[in-house]
TrEMBL record:
Species for this entry: Streptomyces endocoffeicus
Species classification: Bacteria, Bacillati, Actinomycetota, Actinomycetes, Kitasatosporales
Protein name: DUF3097 domain-containing protein
Pfam family membership, one: DUF3097_N
Cross-referenced InterPro entries: DUF3097_C, DUF3097_N
Domain (DUF3097) ranges: 20-83, 113-269
Length: 273
């Protein structure tokens, strides 16, 4: 049995569906009936259906129903529709993984401090935890080696309102570093460390695009030995910049370093009492 199209309008006279265009603010359209041209100011839901308010170049406002094929956009007939509500964005995070606080001002520096062994250590901590440290008001300073730590602790005179945290390289049982750490550790001084010979090793090899950190024979300069083994120029400053530039967040660091730094920050920012 033949099926008949209930719409008796000849196909060549039927209107094609107009494309739907979200009525975003500042979109300039022309209302087809009145010829009023203006920029979208707002959309509203009313009892009669959705409406759009347009503002012309003289600042005049007019409200129109958002009917199908009701507007011209750059000469084309369109149907305006209400813009979709933006999906809630996930909270931004700092390089350390903490929730970022947009617009937060740096806190006045605390009396407490975190000391690290060298400039490279300080730069790495700043790269990953810098935002957190500024909000907490924690200053990071660096030693030129751990041998001077006892004298530095004495001069600092740590107390309940001025705690001192120290991050030490190669802090393993029986090492010189472990003996010095035991000498200065106290109620208001916390010395923590990682097992790596140098802070370079605390960066994951995959982040630096190397298979592993090479083993350097005892007695050789470790950093220069690493450069030689990797085929890099023996310029340790340039090598460090190459390594540092590969660090974008906590995900590029070994967990043995991450936990220690977080613990030190918690220690120096803990409330008195």
């Amino acid at each position: 049995m033949r099926q008949y199209d209930p719409d008796l309008t000849p196909p060549w006279k039927r209107q094609r569906p107009a494309p739907e265009v979200p009525a975003e603010p500042d979109l300039v359209v022309e209302e087809v009936t009145t010829g009023f041209c203006g920029a979208v100011i707002r959309c509203e839901k009313t009892a009669q259906g959705p409406t759009v308010t347009l503002e012309d170049r003289f600042g005049k406002h007019r409200v129109f129903p958002m009917e199908p094929r009701g507007f011209l956009l750059e000469g084309r007939v369109v149907t305006l529709v209400r813009p979709r509500a933006a999906a809630p964005s996930a909270p931004q995070r700092t390089a350390s993984g903490s929730i970022a606080v947009p617009g937060a001002r740096a806190r006045v520096a605390r009396a407490g401090r975190i000391y690290v062994e060298g400039r490279h250590d300080a730069e790495l901590v700043e790269r990953v935890w810098g935002d957190d440290l500024r909000i907490e008001g924690v200053v990071v300073e660096y030693l030129e080696g751990v041998d001077d730590l006892p004298a530095i602790v004495d001069d600092f005179a740590p107390g309940p309102d001025a705690r001192l945290g120290v991050l030490v390289d190669h802090l393993v049982t029986g090492s010189k570093e472990s003996r010095i750490a035991a000498q200065v550790t106290g109620e208001h001084v916390l010395v923590l460390g990682h097992p790596y010979i140098d802070i370079w090793e605390a960066v994951k090899p995959s982040s630096v695009s190397i298979p592993a950190w090479p083993a350097v024979p005892h007695g050789q300069d470790w950093k220069k030995g690493v450069c030689r083994a990797l085929g890099w120029p023996e310029n340790t400053g340039a090598a460090w910049q190459r390594i540092l530039s590969s660090v974008h967040s906590y995900k590029d660091l070994q967990p043995e370093l991450l936990g220690r730094v977080e613990e030190l920050i918690d220690f120096v920012t803990a409330p008195q009492g």
